[in-house]
Amino acid sequence: MFSKMKILFYLSKKRVNQRQQAPIYCRITVDNESCELSTGLFVGIDQFKNGYVLDDHAQACVYNPKLDLIKTKLNSIHLELCLKNEFITPYILKEKFCDKPFKPKKFVELLEELVITAQETANTKSTKFSYEIRQKNILKAVKKNNLQNIYCSQIDGRFLAMIEKHLLVKFNHNYTNKHLFLIGQVLKLAIQRNYINRNEVTFYKKTKDEKKPIIALTKIELIKLQNYKFMSERLQHVADLYVFQCYTGFAYIDMCNFKYEKHVHLIEKKLWIIENRAKTNSEALLPLFQKAAFILKKYKNNLPLLTNQKYNAYLKEISDIVGINKNLTTHTARKTFGMVKLNEGFTIESVSRMMGHKSIKITQSTYAQVTTLRIENEQLRLAVK
After folding, report:
1. Is residue 381's pLDDT more than 70?
2. How many domains are contained in the chain?
C-alpha cells in the first residue's frame, strides 16, 4: 500500500538537561498521523538548525551522518512495506526501526489513552466529566466479566452485547449507545495503530429508545410567563433569565459566558449576538430580539445569574405560580427558542445558525417536529383552502 512519509528532525526544547542541552527527536508522519522517535543525540539549543547540527558543534561531523543514517533506514523500511503492499503507520515504522516486536495495547489501555486525549480537547467541564463517567461504566462491565486483559482484536459482537446488557440494567438505550460509540472510537484508534482492521461497533445492531416529545413552551405560554409580575424579586429575576434564554436560544453555560460588550455587535444598523457555544465552540449568530434587548436594558446589560441547581429549583416554583403544567428547566428554554422560531416561519437553516448547531441535521432531528401551528402558517402563506 503506497503512502507518503515525512521525516522531520527537531530539537525538544522542553527536555533541556542540566548541561543546557536538548535532545534531537525524529518525527515520522504518514498520512497526517505522526509519532516521535528519540535519536539519542543532545546538542545546545543554538547549535541546531533546519534539521541538522551546526558545523561549529564539536561532534557535528558525527551527529549529522547519524541523522542521515536514521533517515535512510526509515526510507528503506517504508519502501519495503510499500513494495509488499502492507498497511503502514508511523508506529509500525518506529517499531521496525527499533527492531522491537509489534505489541498492541490492551483495550483498557487504549480506552484510557483515548479518554485523556478527548478530555484535553473538550470545550467544557461537563464534556470532560461525561468521558470519565462512560469510561468508568465500561470498565465496571469489563471487570465484572474478567476481561481486563482483552485486546481490541478479540472484541466481537458477543463482547458488545455483554457491555450493552450490563449498561441497560441502569441506563436507557440511547445513553448506553453513547458508551458503545466510545468503544467504537477506541477500535478506530486501534485500526490507525494497525492493531485491527475492522471496527465491530460499525456492524453491531444497536437499539434506540423511542423519541420523546420536546418539552417547550408554546408562544401563548411564553407570553403568559413574560407578562406575569412576580411579588418576589428573586422569582422575577429567574423568570427574566428564562425568558432571555427563550429569545436567544442560549444554554445555561452560554448565558453565563455572555458579555454584552463582547458578544453584541452593530451590523448594518441592527444589533446582533455573535457568541461561540461553550459545548461545541460553534458560532451562534442571531438578531438581538426586542424582548431579549428589553431584559438586558432592565439589568443594565448585567444579568442576575445564579447557580444552575438553584435556577432549576426556582423554575419549578415559577411554573406552579404561573400555571404552566410543564417541567421547566434551563434546557427547555433553548428548546422553546427552536420550536417558537420554527413556528414563526424561520427556515430550518436559519434556526440552526441562530442556535449554533454544528450541523443542520441536529436541528432537523431535534427541533423540526411538525406542529399544527406550522401547518396552519404554511396554509395561510400559500393561500391554500
Report:
1. no
2. 3
